[in-house]
Amino acid sequence: MKFRFTTFLSVSLTAFALSQTVHADATLDRIKSRGTLTVGVVLDGTYGSLDPQTREPIGYNVELAQDLARRLGVKFEAVEVTPPNRVQFLQQGKVDALIASMQYTKERDEILSHVPTPFEEIGGSAMVHKGAGIHSWNDLRGKPVCVSQGSNYTRPLIEQYGAQVKGFKGMPEALLAMRGGTCVASVHVTPGIQARLASTSGEWQDYESPIPDQLIPSPSVIWVRKGETDTVAALDKIVKEWHRSGFLIDEGNKWHMPPSQQLLAWHREHSSK
User: Fold this and answer.
1) Do 76 and 108 share a domain, yes or no?
2) Which of 46, 116, 161, 254 has the most CB atoms around its CB within 10 Å?
3) pLDDT tens, position by position, 138-154
4) Domain count for the chain
């Protein structure tokens, strides 16, 4: 009986492994047979938003996703996700991939797969009211700080700088809470902070981003479900071509997000090959 059980277990594990491989190999074929690539994007005004006239998604991340679909020869469908639900949307198959303000972290890599070639490097910045007395990350120690739920800035803010982190649905909600006095600072991706401070609306004229160094600059990558090797390989070729052609630099400039020094270095590296 022991031998039979062991054999059954071995066969079961082998079958499970094969099923995972088949699932991974079938993913890209499924996208192509369906004729549509669905990509989860965050529409919080940083990398994407809704066009006020057409109500269609627009923005930097949206156009990256559109180009992925174009190069795969399929149609594109944007699915709005938020920091709290984006991983679940991907794992549940509601989207094929995420370009959703998710920098690489070891914790995320344990539950998802990602395209190995990053498309940017982004760190965090803090927005505070002018005169708040915040000049460095250490000045946040013991103070309430607003972030988006699921933010990769939560851990360093707590562990390295002793901040009292409060999570909100997204960047707009966190900034609103900061303005209402819930927090002394709101920490998000640097381009999102810069875009708001540079706005001519005057909404943020009493605020600033005084900390000179970014919080944990990290690679921005495209995420897919765990084990989807074919999809990863296909998308990685596209990202490398983005770097080679300068597409990412042009897109960033178009959406008022100047390229990081790392992005410029990647462009030089890939264009020389």
Assistant:
1) yes
2) 46
3) 999 999 999 999 999 99
4) 2
